[in-house]
Specification:
- It is a single chain.
- By secondary structure, this protein is of the alpha/beta class.
- The protein has a single domain, classed as TIM Barrel, CATH 3.20.20.70.
- 36% of the residues lie in helices and 18% in strands.
- The protein contains 8 helices and 9 strands.
- The protein has a 7-stranded parallel beta sheet with strand order 1-2-3-4-5-6-7, covered by helices on one side. Strands 8-9 form a two-stranded antiparallel sheet.
- α3 runs parallel beside α4 and α5 runs parallel beside α6.
- It is globular, with a radius of gyration of 16 Å.
- It starts with a helix and ends with a helix.
Length: 199
């Protein structure tokens, strides 16, 4: 359904400490195998060590890994050496000016950044799907300085997507909660979003 409306990538959300739309690894693998080229398949992982991220990829076989938390053990280089054909996208939770510095430093090691509105320091980590926007002025600074493409996420919907694009100028837009109803993708919300973005 998402592809039919115009999505160029599908995000398949693995186990998370919070947020909507999680599915198990077996279903991620099944969906990833069925996605036609040139549509990208993103596996969203909350693993924080290179070895666990590599193992997670072997269970899901998407063509892109979206790391929603910081890499605490190992290195991006280790992941790329183990699975060189896979693209790495690091999520940066835009909180304050320090997020800009973090993003620019990490951009040296990954294929893309994704700017979101989570709070990894919360009692229960928020690693996406919050439905909240963040300071798009900070996101614009990251886009202007990053050496890699930057996706924008966090509270984007049919009503504000044009403003988000004008203010941030991202490579792409990432959606989750704004196109769901009762936990599932909603065709009416998807249609409204793609009409807004293509207007």
């Amino acid at each position: 359904m998402a592809i039919d409306f115009g999505a160029s990538a599908l995000g398949l959300v693995a186990r998370m400490p919070s947020g909507p739309g999680t599915i198990d690894d077996a279903l991620i693998l099944k969906i990833a195998k069925s996605i036609p080229p040139p549509i990208a398949s993103f596996m969203l992982t909350c693993e924080t060590s290179a070895s666990e991220i590599i193992e997670h990829h072997h269970r899901t076989r998407t063509n892109t890994i979206q790391m929603v938390d910081e890499l605490l053990e190992g290195s991006y280089k280790e992941i790329k050496l183990a699975i060189p054909s896979i693209k790495l996208v690091q999520v940066i939770h835009v909180i304050d000016e320090s997020s800009v510095d973090e993003a620019i430093e990490i951009a040296e090691h990954v294929d893309a950044l994704l700017l979101d509105s989570g709070n990894p320091k919360a009692m229960i980590k928020e690693l996406g799907g919050t439905g909240r926007t963040h300071n798009w002025g900070l996101s614009r600074k990251i886009v202007e300085q990053s050496k890699v493409p930057v996706f924008l996420a966090g509270g984007i919907n049919a009503n504000n997507v044009k403003i988000a694009i004008d203010e941030v100028n991202p490579f792409g837009i990432d959606l989750c909660s704004s196109v769901r109803y009762n936990g599932n993708l909603d065709p009416f919300k998807l249609e409204a979003f793609f009409k807004a973005i293509n207007f």
